[in-house]
Amino acid sequence: METGSHPYVDYLKTLEFGGREGNYFDLPGLGGDKYDRLPYSIRVLLESGIRNCDGFQITSQDVTNLLDWNQNQDKKIEIPFRPARVILQDFTGVPAVVDFAAMRDAVKSLGGDPSLINPVCPADLVIDHSVQVDYFRSSEALTRNQAMEMERNRERFVFLKWGAKAFKNMLIVPPGCGIVHQVNLEYLGRVVFNSGGLLYPDSLVGTDSHTTMINGLGIVGWGVGGIEAEAVMLGQCISMVLPQVVGYKLTGVVSSYATSTDVVLTITKHLRQVGVVGKFVEFFGPGVAQLSIADRATISNMCPEYGATVGYFPVDDMSIKYLRQTGREAGSVEMIEKYLRAVGMFRDYSNSEQDPAFSQILELDLSTVVPSLSGPKRPHDRVSVSDMKTDFSQCLQNKVGFKGFQIPADKHGASAPFSYEGKDYTLKHGSVVISAITSCTNTSNPSVMLGAGLLAKKACERGLSVAPYIKTSLSPGSGVVTYYLKESGVIPYLEQLGFHLVGYGCMTCIGNSGPLPEAVTTAVEQADLVAVGVLSGNRNFEGRINPHTRANYLTSPPLCIAYAIAGTVLIDFEKEPLGVDSSGSPVFLKDIWPTRAELQEVERQYVVPAMFRDTYSKITESNSSWNELEAPDSQLYPWDPKSTYIKSPPFFDGMTQDPPAVRDVEKAAVLLNLGDSVTTDHISPAGSISRTSPAARYLSSRGWVWPLIHRGNSLSYTS
User: Which residue intervals define the domain Aconitase/3-isopropylmalate dehydratase large subunit alpha/beta/alpha in the entry (predicted)?
Assistant: First the structure.
């Protein structure tokens, strides 16, 4: 950045840290009392505006509008925002790389140097491909699923590996390393940048809605579309309306039987009822200090489900401890803390004098949170575990809707006997057929993951088991999770209950549960049963999880195991046992639920910085199949005209030195005009297509021949 002619050069100061120096813009000195009253999330936007003020994309008036947020928040003033970086999930990252490759072609055709086309803004692309879980309940599940993933997506992976070599300022994390948001939290998140000696807050936009998970670490970021992400990569600003900021005050302490999952499901329902669409939510209050960064990240992760743009937790002492725990370099951690204190972005949640002004204040006493699920069709329809049996029974008879299936009264007792692996079983309404510990929401949180492991250990020691026809799976968000689960000794017990490691990705949460056993699907179809999936995810819209689970519930990893053992959601854990032990004594959930003291001791002993350093020091080379892929070394990508997967877009064909005149858009038509709560899962499910679905009948009528092969958000077929 050229500082000599910068309009705010007089506010540059020098900060010393670890024997080094860096410059930064003195925000408190510029803003005075106005700055001290700004929400911390708005302070990040303000700093970006000041630093990037060029009189063209960002003007001094834009900076003034941000500084005067308190009186401007209701005026719908448009502001520019230039994030510090971009993060790309491979589903949406591929088109970005495709477009950059096509730009190089166009520049070459005009006689320019194609090697100059690179992202201006740092871009991290994580190949978070969620392969269909075809293989499970096997020690070989991970290897076989990853081999299938590589086979199905080889062409895309070759293209991305070419991009990793061809473009500067772009980091690509190979497949099989984790979910993009957990890798971002544990490894990619900088918190503070030091770019050429200039210090400034980390901020980002990402091509997945759950990019907000990084808000839990005190980094402002949210999900955007691919076009917006590419624009930021090219150095352009995002245009947005100056947001209102809802202050969400947390008090009290979470009870020993509740988890961060229960907290976020409670908050999601509350904020959906209030309405926070288009707003920032910023958490404050003494209760925040009781939450770990993993707990905060869980709450921030479900920001899209409660409708806000961000769910932000400013940096505090707990954030600094997390950076050390995850193996961040000591000098960087010192720089981060000193810089944030200098610019007034470091919080003490117990000090109410630091509380800024908010547009509105809401409050939650954490001690009132109880074990919960959300469903059967929406993530904000929370139901207490104690009410689950009654609630599901009511859903069976309710009219078809978000909380109803309209099963005739005489069919409520329907059942379907079947045989599986030489034994006889019976399915009924409410029978659990999928139980998945999955998704970025929970698998980054050691307390709930170790809680699941300890519960599994106690369950096995009491002789409890999970029926073999239930599709159980464990798909963590990073290799660190596997590391501490193994070190703590709980993996054998998880596997004994069927929760084998099947891969690293969203998997069941995104709809890639894979097929259920044929005997199960036949029983469900013949008796028209409302079968159930339970998962530690963030979305459970109709059609998303599996075509044979009409009811799907979000819950914590320990409760995923509990419901798998029970085999049904029609159970009252307080009054009914999970099963009986070898002596015939009943075993209740409370008998095997790990105590908070147990969890804290195991986490203290086994979640250590060395695990994070070891995992992430080799992350770009940890996948041997990726390492063996041969990718072109050319500056231009050698497009294959016969490919049905990777094609050069026509946007830059015929591009001229001078841009053509702007023309009117004529005869444009509305593609879809939809009612409330219709999601992309209704329009274009990411999971496999059932043979008996309307979509399958349509495709068959168009000449498609089964089996259809599921490839992420696309399909191929044999003919």
Answer: 69-567
